[in-house]
Request: fold
Amino acid sequence: MKGLAKDLAHLVGPEGFSTDPEDLLVYRHDAIAYFAQGEPAAVVLPKDTVHAAKVMAYASQNGIPLTPRGAGSGLSGGCTPVRGGIVLDTKRMKGILEINRGNLTARVEAGVVLAAFQQAVEAQGFFYPPDPQSKSVCTLGGNVATRAGGPRAVKYGTTVNYVLGLEAVLPDGEVIRTGSSCVKHSAGYDLTHLLTGSEGTLALITQATVRLLPKPPATCTALAVCPTMEMAARIVSETIAGGVVPSMLELLTTASLAVFNRFVTPPLPEEGEACLLMEFDGTAQEALRQAQEMAGACRDMGAIDVRVVPQADEAAVYWMVRSRLYPLVVSRFKRVVTEDVTVPRDRIPEFAAKVMGIAQEMGLSMGLTGHAGDGNMHPTIRMDEVTDALQARADQAMARVIKAGLALGGVISGEHGVGLHKAEFLELELGREQIALMRRIKKAFDPKGIMNPGKIWPPELAS
Amino acid sequence: MKGLAKDLAHLVGPEGFSTDPEDLLVYRHDAIAYFAQGEPAAVVLPKDTVHAAKVMAYASQNGIPLTPRGAGSGLSGGCTPVRGGIVLDTKRMKGILEINRGNLTARVEAGVVLAAFQQAVEAQGFFYPPDPQSKSVCTLGGNVATRAGGPRAVKYGTTVNYVLGLEAVLPDGEVIRTGSSCVKHSAGYDLTHLLTGSEGTLALITQATVRLLPKPPATCTALAVCPTMEMAARIVSETIAGGVVPSMLELLTTASLAVFNRFVTPPLPEEGEACLLMEFDGTAQEALRQAQEMAGACRDMGAIDVRVVPQADEAAVYWMVRSRLYPLVVSRFKRVVTEDVTVPRDRIPEFAAKVMGIAQEMGLSMGLTGHAGDGNMHPTIRMDEVTDALQARADQAMARVIKAGLALGGVISGEHGVGLHKAEFLELELGREQIALMRRIKKAFDPKGIMNPGKIWPPELAS
Reply:
């Protein structure tokens, strides 16, 4: 261990790493403490790509596992150092290197916090849509590594749709620059998107070039309380097919209505089974027109309370409540297990019915909220106590939820990634042949298998 | 050769292939006849994935080169069978398998012609934006294989932004299904995008699941004649940064104005050095507002003729002329050499100046049109006669154009792909390390090197 500290001091200077056990404690897990497995021998905080490359070349030469880490706000155990070794924390690499007005692109270091970046581009009249709910802490590098999404995906897509190019360090310390800052690019294999969502298993992402949009001048919020979940899901799919595409479209359950009623007047009818919270954007006139069109459709289809909220300050209250629902749930229960199965938008009604059926059959308290506009649902098991038996039942229920999603043409993860949490389900989605191919690709990047070992692959394959 | 014919008859039936020399003639090249190199031993027209998989497994066992082909409308020699073997023509696989209204997705076979697909989705009120100019013949599978773009990329992106999932046959005959029909997806490596733009060197794409949009209800066209190319380029970059994003934005040169004047009244002032042809979409009101805003900006910045054309039939004339400019140029010259270097949008003025300088210095007739909104320019050398000396000079000029584009942060190809045509320039863009990595990925898919051999890689590496 002393040898490692000495070597790291030589490579990145004493302020560039730590082997202090107290410092290392926090690096044992991401936002879900019970995924903690293994402990790093050291954490390195490279100040730039050169530092990162030096440390990676050193690790490669010495066969030391490397686990890249952004803010550690993930929910699938993706950045836990299960084989020990070095955690590479990008937090010191937080430069916004360029915001190019004429080209509508920006270039940032991996450790830039998403919210800080969004503020910087908005101050110049631009817009970077991806918006995972952890945006106040999560990093752009982490967003790219996990293919992060968020509520705006319904209209704007996810991180995938904005990354144009990357700088990345290969495990042997070589630096590559993939893609470009051009929207059109058709030369060679698309390594930019291959690295996007690779969860630190192929290379360390050190910089990203992303596409910006002009900021829509206005937004308008709308809300509809529906007597049944099925009706809410049908409204989503029918109205979007009809051409009304909200910039955000969240499906919330009954329990949320009581929370809204602490903040908004007039109160919402709490007998509804589901609630749709939507935002439209464009010019003020255009945003209002879309919201009214959606409100009309919701009324026609039988919603019991529909409101359009054009005033920004009033709308902000609704979205503030939305953003606090998950933290509120987490604070009120001993343990909360969240899934992010995604199904094609038209299968949401069936999926919702399946999930509710599973919860009832297994006697579990389960909530179902989600980014319904893009089919990304977050079934959430809420546990008042944590026992092995209850956890086993929760695991069993979630396995059934995941299989139900797959049977409807869905995927095991919409935006959280595989990490540790979903590894056992990967084969159900991809099949053996595709996993074997992906592992050959992994080998093309990382022949020694030092990058984020123990992740993604089904447990029997994890090296 | 008789053995091959007998084997293929056994695998796909007598109607599923040809070894007739007359049939094979057309498979020697794509849309650019002078890229012809090599001749296939057979062309196979699989009727479905099962057929394709059988033939590929057979080719793999016997070490026979395989060259996938869509409509053969490419411009870089990508589908020429330079090592002989079997050409896989997907034209019989032209089913539109599903248009899913509720999920806004469609699933198609690889051989579906783009225009036919666009008509089918538009008949249902939807919209599939990618629009390479060869859309009346090119196939969806070919679009995916080459990461095809087109004028709408400025607002809507390219094929990359619409492919959600693929069915593909690996060289050994195994079938994989990548991605999904969900907009959000974060499990495993993004093989969908890795195959997109891989130009048939990794696998045969047999089906694609793509994202649809609701069809914008209206469009409005605008046109601005600018005294200088530099001004036109500046208008593009400034107005888009300011929030006015056209659905198409084409930059045309003086020569085009004369062609327009055969069809439109009042005539355009032919003394302009460049012309911007733009389309805006949305509601009728919204499209008109954007066109007027852009027209105002063009006037303010010094355009000498600006017109807004809200009537669809009148606008169609402008776009008809635009679509005929390239075929017109091709028909009027003995040989036309077209590049598709792409530069960041804000570098177009510098790039245009460089290109014009190179043309002048080398005494060549060069046109410069392009999808300026996304930086994708098409410098075109027009040759009245074809001599080895002139062709050598044209090659030299284009090499300088490509290097000028790269020096401005551009890429060697925006939408045509590498094929044969750009292979010698790939290393300039990607560097040795990245090419070595891509070749390891190639090996992970195609260990025997039978997929489209002789393409993409720098000549000294091409197997």
Q: What stands out?
A: The mean pLDDT of chain B is 94. Chain B touches chain A through 94 residues (CB under 8 Å). The first helix of chain B runs from residue 2 to 12. Residues 334 and 386 of chain B are 7 Å apart (CA to CA).
